[in-house]
Amino acid sequence: MAQETPTGFIDVHAHIAPTSFLKEIHKSGKSFGVDVEETDGGHALTFPGLPTLRAAGGSLADTVTRSEWMQEQGIGSQYMAAWLDIQGYTLSKDKEAEWVRLLNEHMAQTAKDSGDAFRSIAAVPLRDGEKAAQELEYAVKTLGMLGTMLPSDPADVDVADAELEPFWAAAEELDVPVMLHGASHSKWPQVGPSYLAFSMGRTLDTTILAAKLIHSGLLDRHPKLKLMLCHGGGALPFLIGRVDVAYRRGMEKVAELERGGPEDYMSMLYYDTVTVNPRSLKLLLDMAGPEHVLLGTDWVWAAMSGGLMDAVGTIGLDQADQDLITRQNALRLFKG
Which domains are seen in the chain, by residue range? Predict the structure, then answer.
């Protein structure tokens, strides 16, 4: 029997580092080449080639505090993805696949144990397209997960590489959303200063990745793919005019696009409300339409500068559009 979605808002963009997973890898992390230290603030992980992560604990690792907050905000259901820092994208191919399988199993079980208000979003290994496709199928069909969230071009991985083609085909066949989310350990150090990594780094990589995927013809090959850009699409909604003009002038053309130009693909994409600014959200809604925008909080980080209701209640939306953004689009897209 399918799990019934509770009434209320649906938050499609939230993160968790499951306590059960952290405890297990505290014992077995060495076998993956990952150092795990238990601190007063939670478990601190060190992956190959990366600095030690900030400790994962408290409201990032459990569902107690978030449940109370959700009730206060009118959120009846939250779709939880793993904290991207712990997805293991700097591990070797075999170790990454093994790590992600363990993570997904703990993610799914944590959501199940936490009650009907919670569903889970899968991780996939990024260094092998076939393994990514297999893991997504396992996560959806066996674990009951609703889709997947990818870090946008983390570390030394190019998510637009042709190697991942089997994964995109699997996501289209399974009819589940693929969410693109900025990575903490991205290529930003090659672009700008560390003090802008949170504000710009974690949105610029999604902006660039989405443009690369459009240019590659991904959405021509997989027209039914449900591709969702976190953080309101980064800067892409506001730069798409330049991207489109450059393509049509032949300055930036990788493949011949069936729809004419990159801007013609924006209506095929989905976005969340995590712009952290209601004025930016208004611009996004004007471009994408309320049918393609879904409520997100980015738990445990800030949903909107003035609170969650900035995303739905203070920017002049009528009730029908509010309902689309806060619930109906999620039910349709994620089939949750």
Answer: 9-16+63-334 (3.20.20.140)
